[in-house]
């Protein structure tokens, strides 16, 4: 009886040791992966940054615009934001500042926060990431860089209400953006990680993504883009309606032809429920 008990104990210890060894191996593998991602992020953060000509032209333009006020709302992002033009007209306001730069990346935004944060605007709506995707960076590296931008905003201007917007889908079939070929699925991966992280840190997250996709896909709807990346007026109309909830504090009824068609097909999940 004692011999049987002893054998069982030995077997149990061996099993536990094996499980712990597997746990340690998994832990060290995850730690190595995290370290590699952080190394990539740190190398990008610490490297001297040089951007395209349009970036510096926009910075110069911003320098000559009226100083941002503490009651202002800043639309901060890339070509999607810049392409929105006069956001005051779109949203029926008079205190919105368009700080979008075509082609901008997360670190480009990080490097120009000095033009915004010292003035502590009332709200910032951030949308960034698709140009980082085109640079062949990993999902985790892009997520880390977006988190760096978010953290800087919250640290340097804690009184500013920050809204993080999801990346929008793309439509590869247009063939216009060669560096985005094969990247359709990476965008929702980044969105999912940022959504979880913002929830953990109490930051409002605006999930634009599902309102721009074809049913049950991650592909941008054809009528919402003219080149597979940038928005048509129909696309901006959807984005505008979604933002009104956060800017105007009113209930918005979203009605689009595609939305109505899907409603008729008994898929009400497509339409926002404000």
So what's the oligomer here?
single chain
The CATH homologous superfamily is called SGNH hydrolase
Instruction: Return Rg in Å.
Output: 23 Å
Structural class: alpha/beta
Q: Given this structure, which CATH class is correct?
A: Alpha Beta
Helical amount: 40-55%
**Could you say what the CATH architecture is?**
3-Layer(aba) Sandwich
Mean pLDDT score: 82
Strand content: 5-15%
How many domains? The number is: 1
Biggest sheet descriptor: 5 strands, parallel
Query: Low-confidence parts, pLDDT < 50 over ≥5 residues?
Result: 2-37, 250-274
Strand order of the largest sheet: 2-1-3-4-5
**Number of distinct beta strands:** 5
CATH fold call: Rossmann fold
Shape category: globular
Q: Output the helix-strand order.
A: HHEHHEHEHHEHEHH
Report the end-to-end length measured between terminal Cα atoms.
69 Å
Task: Please outline the helices and strands.
Elements lengths: L1 H45 L6 H11 L9 E5 L1 H4 L4 H5 L4 E5 L5 H6 L11 E5 L2 H4 L5 H18 L4 E5 L20 H15 L4 E2 L26 H15 L9 H8 L10
Parallel strand pairs: 1-2, 1-3, 3-4, 4-5
Structure, described:
With 274 residues, the protein is an alpha/beta fold. It has one domain (53-270): SGNH hydrolase (Rossmann fold). It has helices at residues 2-46, 53-63, 79-82, 87-91, 106-111, 130-133, 139-156, 186-200, 233-247, 257-264; strands at residues 73-77, 96-100, 123-127, 161-165, 205-206. Strand 4 (161-165), helix 8 (186-200) and strand 5 (205-206) form a beta-alpha-beta unit. Helix 1 (2-46) crosses helix 7 (139-156) and helix 7 (139-156) runs parallel beside helix 8. Residues 2-37 and 250-274 have low confidence and may be disordered.
